[in-house]
Design a protein that fits this description.
The chain has three domains: 47-94 and 160-343, no CATH class; 103-149; 368-533, Glucose Permease (Domain IIA) (Distorted Sandwich). It is 23% helix and 18% strand. The protein contains eleven helices and 23 strands. The strands form six sheets. Strands 9, 10, 12, 13, 14, 15, 17, 18 and 23 form a nine-stranded antiparallel beta sheet that branches. Helix 4 runs antiparallel to helix 5, helix 6 packs across helix 10 (328-336) and helix 7 (258-278) crosses helix 8.
Length: 534
């Protein structure tokens, strides 16, 4: 690669280093003395992303979005898949901001600590509008629709308009039954004939979309629409200036092809979505280095989309593609109909009184395992600290496939398996997008539970190993989702296994499990304090 200046070369080095941080985030079971440089806290990681990775717009970032040629009247580009008027952008009746006449109305997933961070106030300054004496839960979800009085410390913001509902951003019930393969085939664009090798297996373009959606829990409709916006691959053929090796325009050395670029896209969406959920993300930093505060009344889904677009465009083009006449949401609606109408049938994604069903530790009664990692990223960068790690105490080689079993923490159906992976759907409907799901990682392929099998609590799922992702020792990584949203281990719905409740530490991988007056401390080194018995 040729660089026009030493400064450009330095920026490229920073860009590459930043993405190394992103793609290291599945590392588990870290060794003693590891200072965690690759897996910083969410706040530090997001700061790194903003400061290093996208401080300078990439050459392709400002190429105008592809626009397919107009179709003859009455001809639909998506036969049987779409009802909007062909060739005309659909009107999107997006709801107003969560702030109406000075009152903020609680949206699904809001908590008092996160709202306080978004509005820049102390939690005790937020009160119920109907009754200021009404006690608000200090840590739990707030009742959806409740009006709140919040001091105005932010003032007017540039982009208060909602873009997409949460259910159109995460892998939610609205995606259950949707087939990216059927859609791509009906659209008849370049994606329908595209394929590449991923982890030694040949995948079609639509299979790549479906895999990324399931892995990162991002809605496939959003990934398809963004791919169409950036390259025109879904409904047409690439424009002459499209780099086929970098269809989304990340242009990161070594990360070539649709799978790698789409995975980076999903990570940016999740950084914005869950960062807003937790109150960590409060501003957008654009490709030209300018920034603006995010409107505190927005829903997490809208912030996820804003965050993604801010990484690709300077502010002028961001405004054009988010809120101008040729905005991305019009494209999304033309492809998939009205997202808000679809959301009305599945939202809210979870109630304020959501609670976890009974779950057991993922190993057999009478066995001793080590609690090697406290709350850390549930899947990869962007997902919240929702996972816990356990390693068997057997005296076997560090990365040997263990002779003991990972067992089911709760009953359900194995809805997805893969390299090191088992996903169990607890409501048994066969859809990972609905209800509670438990994700087990680093489960060896030998004797792993087959796809579609119903398991009871304590049934064997497979053997702990180092397979899948990055691992420095055999263990099981366990995380939860509800209606497609990753659930933090230490949050409104605490992760409780056999009565042991997870508590986060100051950094990812740190933390404790407590049950009554007993405490187990997470430590990858396997000290005596880490041993937990069932």
């Amino acid at each position: 690669m040729q660089f026009r200046s030493q400064k450009q070369k330095q920026r490229f080095a920073l860009l590459t280093a930043g993405f190394v941080l992103i793609l290291a985030s599945l590392a588990c079971n870290l060794p003693v003395g590891y200072n965690d440089p690759k897996e910083e806290s969410d706040r530090a990681l997001q700061a790194t992303m903003q400061a290093l990775i996208f401080a300078t717009p990439q050459p392709q970032a400002e190429v105008p979005a592809y626009t397919p040629p107009p179709l003859p009247p009455g001809v639909s580009p998506f036969p049987g898949l779409h009802t909007a008027t062909p060739g005309a952008p659909a009107a999107v009746p997006a709801p107003p901001s969560g702030i109406v006449e000075g009152v903020y109305y609680v949206q699904t997933g809001d908590t008092l600590p996160a709202l306080a961070k978004r509005f820049g106030v102390d939690p005790w300054h937020i009160t119920s509008a109907p009754d200021p004496a009404f006690p608000l839960p200090a840590e739990g979800y707030l009742p959806t629709g409740l009006g709140l009085n919040v001091p105005d410390k932010i003032g007017d913001t540039l982009y208060p308009g909602a873009l997409l509902p949460d259910s159109e951003v995460v892998y939610s019930p609205s995606a259950a039954g949707f087939s990216a393969s059927d859609y791509a085939a009906g659209a008849g664009g370049y994606l329908a004939g595209y394929g590449e090798e991923v982890d030694g297996v040949w995948l079609s373009g639509s299979e790549i979309v479906e895999r990324i959606s399931a892995e990162t829990s991002v809605n496939p409709r959003l990934l398809l629409a963004f791919l169409e916006h950036r390259s025109g691959w879904v409904r047409g053929q690439p424009s002459p200036n499209t780099d086929l090796e970098h269809p989304l325009g990340f242009n990161v050395s070594g990360y070539i092809g649709l799978y790698m670029e789409l995975s980076l896209t999903a990570k940016q969406i999740n950084i914005g979505y869950y960062g807003w959920r937790q109150g960590h993300i409060k501003e957008l930093v654009f490709g030209d280095g300018t920034s603006t505060k995010i409107s505190p009344g927005l829903n997490a889904g809208s912030v996820g989309v804003q965050y993604l677009f801010s990484k690709f465009y300077r502010q002028e083009l961001f405004t054009r593609y988010m809120y101008g006449p040729e905005n991305f949401i019009s494209l999304f609606s033309a492809m998939f109909d009205d997202p808000w109408a679809r959301a009305a049938s599945v939202e809210p994604l979870f109630p304020a009184d959501l609670s976890q069903p009974t779950m057991e530790l993922p190993f057999s009664s009478g066995e001793s395992w080590r609690y090697t990692s406290g709350p850390h990223t549930a899947w990869t960068t962007g997902s919240p600290p929702g996972a816990l790690d356990f390693s068997p105490v057997t005296g076997e080689e560090r990365c040997a496939v263990s002779s003991v079993w990972v067992t089911a923490s709760a009953p359900g159906v194995s809805v997805r398996t893969g390299e090191g992976l088992v996903v169990v759907d607890l409501d048994g409907d066969g859809y990972e997008q609905t209800g509670w799901n438990i994700i087990y990682m680093h489960v060896a392929g030998s004797e792993r539970v087959p796809l579609g099998v119903y398991v009871n609590t304590n049934d064997p799922l497979g053997h702990p190993s180092c397979e899948g992702g990055q691992a420095t020792g055999k263990h099981v990584h366990i995380a939860r989702k509800y209606n497609g949203e990753w659930i933090s281990a230490d949050g409104p719905v605490p992760f409780i296994l056999s009565g042991w409740e997870a508590h986060a530490g100051e950094r990812n991988f740190q933390g404790t499990l407590t049950r009554g007056d007993q405490t187990v401390i997470a430590n990858p080194g396997g000290t005596r304090d880490t041993v937990i018995n069932r």
